[in-house]
Amino acid sequence: MSEKLWAGRFKEKTAKIVETFTSSIDVDRRLYAYDIQGSIAHCKTLAKAGIISAKEAGELAAGLKKIKQEIDAQTFHYHDALEDIHTHIESRLAEIVGNVAQKLHTARSRNDQVALDVRLYLRDTVASIIQLLGQLQKVVVHVAKSHIKTVLPGYTHLQRAQPVLLAHHLMAYYEMFARDTERLQDCLARINVMPLGSAALAGTPHPIDRKYTAELLGFKKVSANSMDSVADRDFMIEFLSAASICMMHLSRLSEELIIWSSTEFSFIELPDAFATGSSIMPQKKNPDVAELVRGKTGRVFGNLMAMLTLMKSLPLSYNRDMQEDKALLFDAADILSACVEIIVQLLPKIKFNKTNMQAAAGEGYLNATDMADYLVTKGMPFREAHHCVGQIVSYAVRNRKEIHALSLAELQQFSPHIEAEIFDFLTTQQMIDRRTTIGGTATRAVKAAIKTAEKKLKNS
Q1: What is the CATH number of the domain that holds 66?
Q2: Within this chain, do residues 145 and 16 fall inside the same structural domain, yes or no?
Q3: How far apart are CA 221 and CA 224, in angstroms?
Q4: Which member of 130, 193, 329, 352 has the greatest number of CB atoms within 10 A?
Q5: Which of these is catalytic: 157, 279, 313, 407?
Q6: Domain co-membership, 244 together with 328
Q7: CA pair distance 160, 152, nearest whole angstrom
Q8: Residue 90 belongs to a domain
Q9: Which of 128, 278, 394, 460 is catalytic?
Q10: Domain span holding position 148
């Protein structure tokens, strides 16, 4: 069937350039399985309502399944003249089952059909990404657990600040990815709403049971307003927002891997299988995987902004502008899935240079805050202690020494409260293990955080 499904109103054939310009088949063909799934459910709903016979519903369902087999086998033929995957399937169905195919579109429109297909696609995609994020969280926890004794500097403003456990640092990303998972799980509640039966915008006069259709397709809710049903893309925007936040987290991790792998830091060594070389400089080992994750983040952000811009001025209900939504959605979902998956593979293979990390944690006056805290335990107000230690740091800098390398006599120039015990107080391990509050970097606290995470992941 080469004639347009809507050709009855028109006297002229659509111009070839218009067919090419308006065609979306290159983008939306990936929805074919969902379109067929939705159409089979619609057949059953029409039969239940007595609109078509059980025999006709069976013929239609069999024809739709045959089309899926053809598309799966890549023997299906596509044409720009047929605009989109929905028209392709309906046209091919007519070739297989004859005139009964013309009854399939009763009580539905292309508008609610598209909305259904995208919701089915996104429901599966989000579930898949949640599963990938679960794997990523497990990897992060596993790597953290193996580095419970590894120490490195914690940073603020990219300046060495205080020593922390590498496990604590990594568990910060576990928390980020856990929130990403929660956001996507919450997003599913708004995705899992069944729009079919809303028709073009006003609903349908045919006595179909929309709740029955929802049950067949596994939807928990039926959309409440037919105009909103076909005009709503909030669920896609919400996904793109959650995807953007997750990509931001992946980008931050990638940035640290890039910095840490540099000669200036030398905190990690990336596996050869996840790095590339230079076409001109033989010595180079480039962190291309991490750089690409960081770079692809911008595309996902852009897709979110494009979708918001696409929808911001559209009057109710459906507008053809919305054809552009799927390219943005598919691109973001593909990128997020690929980035999570490659980080899952990369993280366990990274070699952490414990010696370099430990050495960096012992330099740069990282024990200054602890010295101020020590003076507080001696009764000195914190602000006064902060000022006193600032003077000690200034003296140490002038003399090119670390605080713990100063003599007791030198330290006592600044405060009589300082006693010989200060040197034990300022060791890296002591500084770490004193931070025992929930969420702190003390070994005991980090072990507890890992145990909690393992229990949560086991039960998820």
Answers
A1: 1.10.275.10
A2: no
A3: 9
A4: 329
A5: 157
A6: yes
A7: 9
A8: yes
A9: 278
A10: 111-202+223-350
- For the record, the structure tokens of 179 come out as 């929130």
- Judge if 270 and 342 occupy the same domain: yes
> Are the beta carbons of 288 and 276 closer than 8 angstroms?
yes
| Segment 368-381, tens digit of pLDDT | 999 999 999 999 99
pLDDT digits (tens, 9 = 90+) for 183-209: 999 999 999 999 999 999 999 999 999
Q: Is 157 a catalytic residue?
A: yes
Supply the pLDDT for residue 460.
83
* 82 and 119 inside one domain: no
Q: What is the amino acid identity at position 228?
A: D
Q: Is 79 marked active-site?
A: no
For residue 22, the model assigns a pLDDT of 82
pLDDT of residue 368: 96
Three-state DSSP state, 193: strand
pLDDT score of 3: 59
Regarding whether 56 and 93 lie in a shared domain, the answer is yes
Q: Is the same domain home to 389 and 241?
A: no
Which residues 6+ apart lie within 8 Å of 12 measured at CB? none
pTM (2 decimals)? 0.93
Structure tokens at 281: 């400089």
> What tokens appear for 56 in the block?
């006709």
Joined tokens for residue 243: 């995807």
Tokens standing for residue 196: 């079919």
- Taken as a whole, the chain contains a residue count of 460
Q: What gap in Å lies between CA 47 and CA 213, rounded to an integer?
A: 11
